């Protein structure tokens, strides 16, 4: 596996790349991509880090798995490429932004525009076999992405972490809450949202308030 990751991350992650677990993980990924249809395409697995450079990180959104349908995943959690129909969780994210900030519902589900503003859209697991949710979990990705969260927590200040749903909320143990802000809510999936755990959380306006308190530019959601 040829790791295509922006140079700003290399000083913080290069020791991770040399660890046995990561080398084993890359061997597993090479084999999976050779023998199965997997997502996202191999050249964009590390897209989250390429669109959001280390020095720019001010918000972290944690997802679990990439989308496993054809043409959906492109390396940013919750995001889909232009002209791809919006999955239910993304639809609910956009509805909450509309409710919270009054912004119109966007045509494109491509969240590169967020990443370019310093929003790290990080899935805990960066790859998946087609149509098999969770198929690449517990192979080493979680060790890597947990390290990413810890590195951001250690080396940055005033980052806003958005932890949506039970899985993401467990990541709070990796974050220094004395230096950073953590906003939690239910997951934007229909199951959670329809039970009243997502809508009305106002996490987007709250994030911008916290950024402004830290003298940072708010995100144009």
From TrEMBL:
GO BP terms, alphabetized: base-excision repair, AP site formation via deaminated base removal
Enzyme class: hydrolase
Gene Ontology MF terms: uracil DNA N-glycosylase activity
InterPro entries: UDG_fam1, Ura-DNA_Glyclase_AS, Uracil-DNA_glycosylase-like, Uracil-DNA_glycosylase-like_sf
Residue span, Uracil-DNA glycosylase-like domain: 50-211
PROSITE patterns for the chain: U_DNA_GLYCOSYLASE
HAMAP family from the UniProt entry: UDG (MF_00148)
Described function: Excises uracil residues from the DNA which can arise as a result of misincorporation of dUMP residues by DNA polymerase or due to deamination of cytosine.
Family, as annotated: Belongs to the uracil-DNA glycosylase (UDG) superfamily. UNG family.
Protein name: Uracil-DNA glycosylase
Species the sequence originates in: Pseudalgibacter alginicilyticus
Gene: ung
């Amino acid at each position: 596996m040829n790791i295509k990751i922006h140079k700003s991350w290399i000083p913080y992650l290069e020791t991770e790349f040399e660890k046995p677990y990561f080398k084993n993980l890359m061997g597993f990924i090479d084999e999976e991509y050779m023998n199965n249809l997997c997502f996202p395409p191999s050249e964009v697995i590390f897209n989250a880090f390429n669109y959001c450079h280390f020095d720019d990180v001010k918000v972290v959104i944690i997802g679990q798995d990439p989308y496993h349908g054809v043409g959906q995943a492109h390396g940013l959690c919750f995001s889909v490429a232009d002209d791809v129909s919006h999955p239910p969780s993304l639809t609910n994210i956009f509805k909450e932004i509309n409710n919270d900030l009054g912004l119109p519902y966007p045509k494109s589900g491509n969240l590169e525009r967020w990443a370019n503003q310093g929003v790290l859209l990080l899935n805990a697991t960066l790859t998946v076999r087609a149509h098999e949710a969770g198929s690449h979990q517990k192979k080493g990705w979680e060790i890597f992405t947990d390290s990413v969260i810890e590195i951001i927590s250690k080396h940055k200040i005033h980052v806003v972490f958005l932890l949506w749903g039970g899985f993401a909320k467990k990541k709070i143990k990796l974050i220094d809450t004395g230096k950073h802000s953590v906003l939690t809510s239910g997951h934007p999936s229909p199951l959670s949202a329809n039970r009243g755990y997502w809508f009305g959380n106002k996490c987007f306006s709250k994030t911008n308030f916290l950024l402004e308190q830290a003298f940072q530019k708010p995100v144009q959601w």
